[in-house]
């Protein structure tokens, strides 16, 4: 059976309250689907209404979408695999599956208050199409808006005082098989109170890996007799091949390993994310840090985070995080 696409839209409330990790962890682990692409959006009223109109049979959700304030940040994540729409729909739930005991994602992360047969409060947490036709229609709406209304957004107005942005890469060891690990990593970053303003799954090429980890090469060569070999192992772990084993064409091609890039924003974002991440060596990391919980070695340690504002700009440029692949991947 051919692979198909579906999507979820993590609502502004769920995104703001740090529920993204739990939602994604459950989706990935229960569905077995792959992350195809994703994008943070500040959807216009026109796009919200158009998206609502694609969701037949979810009247509460349609009203909710049309009532959202224009420009509120949400996260669209596209998943790929066999029967993607039906798998996602069964895991997420719909307007009628929000009164149980956590069986669906909406049941866990959404809120529904009814009094006297009337809905007093409705916040679904996450929205998903019911079938393949709705998925295709919704993706078409989101793709059309992905340039003007999506990308690396700005959340400075939601904080007091100056803010900065920082880059996180969730490393390939978290995607070895469908599991809750990627969501768990995001969950621990959420405790920083920073805003998630950028999201993009990608495959690092060997050439990008060489440039990204270029500053590490001289250090390893000076420190270790097999320093270059160690450096090539880092690139191979992130991109799937050792640089010395690749032709120029192979170096330029997207790698075989899945990563996810995240951009966080807020006061002292670089330092806060680095503290949540923990030291490079997981054995030296404090309890409760990402590398303590998800790392195994100095190289296979869960995630990478930029160590300065200057490196945020350098590393973001190398992985071309500003490029919009959402539109091309869902076409």
Structure description:
This protein has 331 residues and is α+β, with helices and mostly antiparallel strands. The chain has two domains: 3-145, Alpha-Beta Plaits (2-Layer Sandwich), CATH 3.30.70; 156-330, Nucleoside diphosphate kinase-like domain (Alpha-Beta Plaits). Helix content is 41%, strand content 21%. The chain has helices spanning 12-16, 20-31, 45-52, 59-67, 84-92, 105-109, 132-145, 181-190, 206-212, 214-223, 227-239, 248-252, 269-277, 290-294, 309-318, 326-330, and strands spanning 3-10, 34-42, 73-82, 111-115, 118-123, 126-127, 164-170, 195-203, 258-266, 303-305. The strands form three sheets. Strands 2-3-1-6 form a four-stranded antiparallel beta sheet, with helices on both faces. Helix 10 packs antiparallel against helix 11 (227-239). It is globular.
Fold blueprint:
Blueprint: E1 3-10, H1 12-16, H2 20-31, E2 34-42, H3 45-52, H4 59-67, E3 73-82, H5 84-92, H6 105-109, E4 111-115, E5 118-123, E6 126-127, H7 132-145, E7 164-170, H8 181-190, E8 195-203, H9 206-212, H10 214-223, H11 227-239, H12 248-252, E9 258-266, H13 269-277, H14 290-294, E10 303-305, H15 309-318, H16 326-330
Antiparallel strand pairs: 1-3, 1-6, 2-3, 4-5, 7-9, 7-10, 8-9
Helix pairs in contact: 2-5, 2-8, 3-4, 3-7, 10-11
Write down the Rg. Answer: 20 Å
What is the helix content?
Answer: 40-55%
Strand order within the widest beta sheet = 2-3-1-6
CATH architecture of the largest domain: 2-Layer Sandwich
| Class computed from helices, strands and strand pairing | alpha+beta
Tell me the distance between the termini: 19 Å
The 3D shape can be described as globular
SSE ordering = EHHEHHEHHEEEHEHEHHHHEHHEHH
